[in-house]
Amino acid sequence: MRKKLICLLVTGSLPGIAAADATSDQIKALQAQLNALQKEVKQLRAEVATKPKAAAAVTVAPAPAVVAAPVDISSPDYGKAQATLTNDDVTAMKQQIANQQLKVDSLEDAAQTGPIAGLSVTGYIDPTYIYNRAQSSSSFLFANHESSYNYFNSTFGDLYLDIKKTFGVGPMAPSAEITLMPNRGNGITLLQNSHGDIGNNILNTAVVNVPLTATTTLVAGLIPSFGGYELQQSNQMLTLTHNLLYDFSDPGSYIGIGANYTAGNWAWKFFLGNEQYRTFGAVTQTGTNALGDPITTSNKIPTFTARTDYTWSSALDIGGSINIGRQTLPSSIADNGTVSYGVGGQAPSSGGTFFFTEADLTYTLADVQYNAELDYGQQQNAAYNGGQAQWYGLSLLAHRKFNLPVVGRMGATVRYDLLVDSKNGGGGGGIALNGNGMDTANGFGIGADCLANSQANGGLGFECKGATRQDVSLDLLFYPTQQITVKVEYRHDWANKQVFLKNDGSYGKSNDLLATQFIYSF
């Protein structure tokens, strides 16, 4: 019986395992089985060696006239007979185990030094359905190729791919990581060339990490912002839509070089690069020469950003970031060659100093998570009337997971956001106003009634204040499997100005969203 069992292990289980994917866990499991078989072979060889040689060589020919007694498989003694192996049997088993060991060694070598060593590809798809009351629209959002970025159409409804390659093993191994979002990532909605045009590429981030010491790592490439508690990826968010600070206050992405440093409970990040969203140094036309050729100026001042995190305990992380640089303002050229700067054409120059800082915390314990964030930012000459833009805000989030008898594992999230952008008509940061000083899709800028009153008196609304924005989001999350997450969200947004454009052409102070999202992670 033991002989049959071992032969089944060798000829059945091992080939199936060897044909599986060459992951480290599978290799370890295969090696463990081989070790167990080798131990069993040694025990069997010891048993054979202790038996008399004559007994091993004696064979009894079956008597043709005798009928074997029927075997009672229900007997408690069935299958307990002592197995006897010859030296040839043991030698054959040793050869089979040696062959399997060779295969394991080959798999280990390929996993550590082969072309796919250290390579991982992960990601998700997240088709989303949203009803928007102000626009009177309801539709599925998935792979919708467009460059607009709104709070109801940001980084969701897309395919996300994370491709990472580690060169070697251990903490000193360098790595390269690229994330792709073909339709709603940084490349489609935010990354600009030298003239501010969006290039519609699928690249979202691209980072190279080169450890210099056990505590310091060199970082280069296209990185996301250091600001805030919220992440970009839908499968790592506890709500369906992003908070107001993520969408319109925190800086975006950067291209440049930096370093990460850790010391005890502290972690530091430093980065020097182009101004946010720029794949190339910004170039602005400042006029024309006598022949009508453009005269330009370039933003030669790099942007510096840094972040620090302190791990207070296993449950609490407290962090903050800072950002300082010079941001390029929008510009326009009149028929006579005159160049105007700023949203309202009132800025005195082509750019202004940008300063931003924030503090955030994350508390996670068992099935409970709390997040908080405070923001402050300002940008010279970036407001609608050409003055200084200034904004500040708050975001609070609470989440809890639980089980229901029929539904199973699920969670609930509530979030509140506040973003004040009233100074000089609003603007600055990630708030993009139109020529009338309004962002009618996202609810920022001056109110429609104030603009109408100003225009009736011959003005352009430069005396109007910008809007203060708030929202409350309520989410239910369902986890039917480890790969699948389903979210349902109701969100109410409101402002103190008439800044939300309705589908009938009028303006209101609020809007509502009802949305659901299906996320499949892989």
Automatic annotation (TrEMBL):
InterPro entries in alphabetical order: DUF3138
Cleavable signal peptide: 1-20
Domain of life: Bacteria
Record has Coiled coil as a keyword: yes
A Pfam family it matches: DUF3138
Coiled-coil portions: 20-47
UniProt keyword terms in alphabetical order: Coiled coil, Signal
Protein name: Exported protein
Species: Paraburkholderia xenovorans (strain LB400)
Lineage: Bacteria, Pseudomonadati, Pseudomonadota, Betaproteobacteria, Burkholderiales
